[in-house]
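Hi all, posting the design record for the shared folder.

TITLE: backbone redesign
STEP: 1 of 1
STRUCTURE INPUT:
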């Protein structure tokens, strides 16, 4: 299964989860307001029989359970959407032929996605791309992400070093100027 089919399947699962959540809340609303619906003539015998059978599942025994069930489904939906958008950006950039520096905090989730997309879209690159993994626990490759030939002066190295180090530790951006923040950035820059 390629990345496109994975994305389509994930979207179908997300849509189905959203539909289930809306269905649970709709049934809950119908059951809570049944007397008002009956008074307005908005009920039907077939709907009443279906709702009666659904209510026997135990999900609608009290007021809190259906709301909690729907909330859990929506939280799952939110987490799935968040993860999908990260994957979409990786897929989109590789498809366009961009080079990337990916910090995979759930190693090797994004790395596998990036590698498989790179294999799929390697024809979009003028020069055949290479894939490198930098891991501090296991040595896969040794490389310098800062190509000295592309740096015109020390300012380029400083800005690149700062960008990479602040990207690895988001808290450092709040402590700009601190010795324990600037020291590793300067050390990284000089290497």
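Okay, here is what came back for every position:
SEQUENCE:
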């Amino acid at each position: 299964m390629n990345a496109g089919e994975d994305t389509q399947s994930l979207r179908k699962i997300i849509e189905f989860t959203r539909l289930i959540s809306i269905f649970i809340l709709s049934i809950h609303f119908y059951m809570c307001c049944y007397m008002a619906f009956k008074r307005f003539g908005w009920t039907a015998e077939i709907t009443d029989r279906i709702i009666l059978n659904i209510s026997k599942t135990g999900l609608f025994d009290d007021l809190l359970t259906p709301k909690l069930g729907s909330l859990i489904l929506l939280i799952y939906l939110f987490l799935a959407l968040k993860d999908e958008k990260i994957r979409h950006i990786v897929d989109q950039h590789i498809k366009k032929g961009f080079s990337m520096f990916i910090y995979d905090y759930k190693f090797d989730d994004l790395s596998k996605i990036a590698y498989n997309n790179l294999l799929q879209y390697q024809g979009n690159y003028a020069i055949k791309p290479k894939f490198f993994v930098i891991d501090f626990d296991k040595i896969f490759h040794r490389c310098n992400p800062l190509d000295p030939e592309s740096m015109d002066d020390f300012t380029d190295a400083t800005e690149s070093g700062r960008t990479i180090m602040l990207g690895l530790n988001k808290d450092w951006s709040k402590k700009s100027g601190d010795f324990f923040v600037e020291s590793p950035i300067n050390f990284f820059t000089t290497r």
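COMMENT: The two ends are 42 Å apart (CA to CA).
Let me know if anyone wants the other runs.
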